[in-house]
Amino acid sequence: MEKPKNNFFGEKKYISRLELRQKLRKAPSKFPSSSRRYTKQERVKMEKEMFGNRYGKYITPREYKDKIKRLEKERYNTRKISERIEINKKIKFLENLKEL
Fold first, then answer.
1. Among 74, 9, 43, which Cα is nearest to 51's?
2. What distance in Å separates the CA atoms of residue 79 and residue 87, rounded to the nearest whole number?
3. 15 C-beta neighbours (distance < 10 Å), count
4. Which pTM does this prediction carry?
5. 88-98 tens-digit pLDDT
6. How confident is the model over 35-64, as pLDDT tens digits?
7. What's the CA gap between 77 and 52, in Å, rounded?
8. What is the C-alpha to C-alpha distance for residues 22 and 44, in angstroms, rounded to an integer?
9. 8 Å CB contact between 89 and 16
10. CA–CA separation, 39 and 14 (whole Å)
């Protein structure tokens, strides 16, 4: 039996905002590859600012990957090192979260 490509979405073609918010609340505050801890409030706020009204009521795996790519582009275009580090931490958090 093959393992699903993306454990975060499983066999689903999309997840609702509510599901995403719940997964962010239940996610560990820190992953082994990440150096920053995120509180529940920060994680919920992250969902609201990263997946705003532009994404609608449901979020697909493609939109999730697209957001990570947009963050990488933003990191590349940012001049301040402190902002780059913070964006990099968000990228790592989202990548780790999708593997849960």
1. 43
2. 12
3. 19
4. 0.78
5. 888 888 888 87
6. 677 787 888 888 888 888 888 889 988 998
7. 21
8. 9
9. no
10. 25
